[in-house]
Amino acid sequence: LYNLQDRDFPVTCPDASRCSFVLSSLPNPKVNLFMQRLRYPLAMADVAVIAGSASDGEIVSKATSALDEQGVSYDYQVLSAHRDPEELAAYVKNSEARVFIAVAGLSAALPGVVASLTEKPVIGVPVAAGTLGGLDALLAIVQMPRGAPVACVGIGNGANAAHLAVRILKA
Fold first, then answer.
1. Is the whole model's pTM more than 0.70, yes or no?
2. CA 112 to chain centre
3. Which of 3, 26, 57, 76 has its CA 20 to 30 A from that of 47?
4. 3 pLDDT exceeds 50?
């Protein structure tokens, strides 16, 4: 999922010792032990793609492939609104991305939490997880409260989220 063409990227690892294979392949990598994330100095990305779980990778792949096709830079993170709230808040508040894509299933809190932390556009991608096939996530994303707007694409439609992000960037 990482595009190495002329840009830097983050790699998520459980701890630095498990990332030795990545550390050895990158020039001057930096490790942020507080967030337990291996960080290669990150260039400004136009779009931040955040997944609530690593299991959302197939949907994320569709989004990042569409962004690659359009030549749009992106940063990809796996950050749960429930399990990683402090890391998520720090990431969103410090991100230079102009648009956020948040991929989440079940309660789908991630897009709304991201929207509450930024004034930038947020696009939610509901994931078909659990017994309702993604309908619960879709309804959660489209029912955001006043002041925390989130655009929503179809269930599992990461590619459409990327296409919408591109349109927002061009506006």
1. yes
2. 13
3. 26
4. no
Contact 88, 82 (CB under 8 A): no
CB 35 within 8 A of CB 12: no
Asked if residue 63 lies in contact with residue 41, where contact means CB atoms within 8 angstroms, the answer is no
Rounding to the nearest 10 degrees, give the CA dihedral for residues 141, 68, 46, 76: 60
| CA pair distance 140, 13, nearest whole angstrom | 30
SS (H, E, C) the chain: CCCCCCCCCEEECCCHHHHHHHHCCCCCCEEECCCCEEECCCCCCCEEEEECCHHHHHHHHHHHHHHHHHCCCEEEEECCCCCCHHHHHHHHHHCCCCEEEEEEECCCHHHHHHHHHCCCCEEEEEECCHHHCCHHHHHHHHCCCCCCCCEECCCCCHHHHHHHHHHHHHC
- Model pLDDT for residues 43-77, shown as the tens digit of each residue: 589 999 999 999 999 999 999 999 999 999 999 99
Residue 19: predicted pLDDT: 53
CB-CB contact of 150 with 144 (8 Å)? yes
